[in-house]
Amino acid sequence: MTFSTVIFYVFAAILIFAALRVITTRNPVHAALWLVLCFFTAAAVWILLGAEFLGIALVLVYVGAVMVLFLFVVMMLDVNFDSMRANFRSYVPVGLTVGFLVLLEMALVLWGAKVGGSAAPAPMSGSNTSALGRLIYVDYVYPFEIAAVVLLVAIVAAIALTHRKRRESKHQDPGAQVKVRREDRVRLVNLPSETSE
């Protein structure tokens, strides 16, 4: 057994343990921190497999942005998790069904690769980052652009749904400011002067 194989098994064991702690811990903040450990170990496994760009992207995007946002939301919202856990047993059949289907799909993929016996494609020249860029921006440029437009529409829809007009919000109306006249802005009042006696 080589050193890289030992390191792979160590990272895989840490990943499995952290994933189990994500779903078994009772505190949502602790679950989010265990998920951060999952992301780090998955990134380490990807780097061991030669996918450096995906490993670094996983750390930067998910750990650096998504998990920080998730932790802020969990800590800022006062969610009653005890009431959410009350019907936990009713979700077990659905969870077992989904888990079995995922396990079946992974087994079929591994079995198809072993039975098919297709040779691995020749490695491309250059790094895997340039190969990934070539695939995204040359071979699959139209699906990539369609996905970008769909995400843009989703972002605009989310902003439109969250920024509805509220009565208590104060805003300026530039149209009304331009239409105002000088007489409406300043009112001169003629008061008699005081005389001292």
Task: Explain what this protein looks like in three dimensions.
It is a single chain. The protein is mostly helical and 197 residues long. Among the domains are: 8-79, Four Helix Bundle (Hemerythrin (Met), subunit A); 128-161. It is 72% helix and 0% strand. The chain has helices spanning 3-24, 28-48, 52-76, 81-85, 92-116, 128-139, 141-162, 174-179, 182-185. Helix 1 runs antiparallel to helix 2 (28-48) and helix 2 packs antiparallel against helix 3. The longest helix is centred in the first third of the chain and has 25 residues, at 52-76. The model has no long low-confidence stretch (mean pLDDT 82).
Describe what is shown at a glance.
It is built from nine helices and no strands. It has 197 residues and is mainly α.
Largest sheet: none
Structural class: mainly alpha
What characteristic shape results from the CA principal axes? elongated
Low-confidence stretches: none
From the 3D structure, determine the CATH topology of the domain at 8-79.
Answer: Four Helix Bundle (Hemerythrin (Met), subunit A)
Number of strands: 0
Which second-level CATH architecture of the domain at 8-79 applies?
A: Up-down Bundle
Which CATH class of the domain at 8-79 is shown?
A: Mainly Alpha
Order of helices and strands: HHHHHHHHH
Radius of gyration: 29 Å
Give the N-terminus to C-terminus distance in angstroms.
111 Å
Strand content: under 5%
Determine the fraction of residues in helical runs and give it as a percent range.
over 70%
Number of helices: 9
The CATH homologous superfamily of the domain at 8-79 is named NADH-ubiquinone/plastoquinone oxidoreductase chain 6, subunit NuoJ
Mean pLDDT value: 82
